Amino acid sequence: MQDAFDALKSLVEKHGQSHLIGHWNSLNSVERDLLVKEIHSIDFDELRRLFIGNAKGTDWKQLASRAKPPDAVRREELAAHRHAKSIGEEAIRAGKVAMILVAGGQGTRLGFDLPKGMFRIGPVSNRTLFAMHVDSLRGAMKKYGVEIPLLIMTSPATDQQTKDYFAAHNNLGLRDDQITIFQQGTMPAIDASTGVILLESTHRIAMSPDGHGGIVKALSKHGLLRTCAERGIEHFFYAQVDNPLVTACDPTLIGHHLHRGSQMTTQVVQKRFAKEKVGNVVSIDGKTQIIEYSDLPDEVAELQNPDGSLQLWAGNIAVHVLDRQFLENCCLDDNALPFHRAHKAVPFVDASGSTIKPASPNAIKFERFVFDLLPHAAQALVVEGDAAEVFAPVKNAEGAATDTPSLSRFAISNRFKRWLAAAGVESEASCVVEINPLWALDADDVKTKIQAPSKIQSNTYFA
Ligand code: UTP
């Protein structure tokens, strides 16, 4: 017993983190066990490297000066999209596609206490984000007559409540063997000026999810790449839980991916203005990669083509298609995805045991981003979508200028109004309209359902 404690003590002392066991004498045995487990999960050397690396950083100005627009299939290439759709549908029918939904984020900006997937967003149905995604997937399974496995990544912040939610709602219509909920890894938050690890309580380290890029390590750790290979899965359709306009396993995107022999394909939208707060998908020295809006110098962001359009036009919306084999290769390299640093206000317990709630950022959190896989792809592809059709994320609380629940509901209803209008059904401006993907997956499906022109005069849910 004493030996184990001595080993723990020398471990934290060696790394200058003795404060982690500063409250040891006041802890009960359960608390001690929890703390020991967390301490042993930390790679102290890596953390130190990440802290010291702080000073260097990437020279974005230099990198951005070489940025060109990416190799992309543009929106207006309608024949190419039609062709791609049929290729994608064939791959889905053949059972080669699985869906990944990342839902491990803490959703701090939205200020919702439960996992964001449980947020109700259906403008008429009041369905949750999880239900919107699962219905979209079930719609694809029904249309293509195939099983499509759903892999949901959670984090300690969202895992139990997500599992309880799915259990309480019959997996939203999926069988147990059609859904896998698994946890991503965590990283400790450190004090921004000293590099010491912050304690969340006297016996818990301030841990946060390791970013959506944690998907690579988590898929491999939970053996999911192997089980997917055994099921014949070749491609993953990746989406984030907070965008209800995602079409699960979008056949057009998958088809472009296959047609071009891409290892990673990403859907983008045309940026509305130069400094819009989205990642910029660009090509640098022949490699596709993303430069965050905050890292792109104004003078580069504002560069225009002769017709006045933006040179760097492609905005990331975090919808990707990834080859299983490509992910397997990336898993072999622990550093395929770098950690990014985010300065955040993280509450912590001090030496006296009091909780300090800083008003301004005091800490560094470390996150990996899935889009950093793009430059690793031997072949990557960018496909442009129409923002009004594919992107209405729920990021911010009501009252913010962008990405709020109301704006998302408005965009959902407008998309379905357009689909209905194309089939001869007009809607009154004041009406809210929603279509369940089990009723119709896309505008073409709607046309097959509508027999005669009509008008919608009250809020309507087609299900
Ligand atoms: P965001 O970066 O927008 O973060 O995540 P968030 O947690 O939803 O919200 P804020 O920044 O705290 O307000 C984009 C997507 O990536 C997932 C989120 O669940 C969301 O679907 N994500 C993010 C993870 O799965 N794990 C993470 O560690 C971070």
Primary descriptors:
463 residues; alpha/beta; Spore Coat Polysaccharide Biosynthesis Protein SpsA, Chain A; 3 domains; 8-stranded mixed sheet; 3-stranded antiparallel sheet; 15 helices; 31% helix; globular; binds uridine 5'-triphosphate
Structure description:
The protein has helices spanning 2-14, 29-40, 44-52, 60-64, 78-93, 129-144, 159-168, 215-221, 224-230, 251-259, 298-301, 324-331, 387-390, 405-422, 443-449, and strands at 67-68, 72-73, 97-102, 150-154, 179-183, 186-188, 190-191, 199-201, 204-205, 207-209, 235-240, 264-270, 280-284, 287-291, 314-323, 340-344, 348-349, 355-356, 363-367, 380-385, 425-427, 433-435, 454-456, 460-462. The protein contains 15 helices and 24 strands. It has an 8-stranded mixed beta sheet with strand order 2-20-12-15-11-3-4-5, with helices on both faces. The protein is of the alpha/beta class. The longest helix has 18 residues, at 405-422. The protein has 3 domains: 1-40, no CATH class; 57-395, Spore Coat Polysaccharide Biosynthesis Protein SpsA, Chain A, CATH 3.90.550; 404-463, no CATH class. Helix 5 crosses helix 10 (251-259) and helix 14 (405-422) crosses helix 15 (443-449). Helix 7 (159-168) links the parallel strand 4 and strand 5 (179-183). The radius of gyration is 24 Å and the shape is globular. Bound molecules: uridine 5'-triphosphate. Uridine 5'-triphosphate is lined by residues 102-109, 116, 153, 155, 184, 209-212, 214, 240-242, 367, 395.
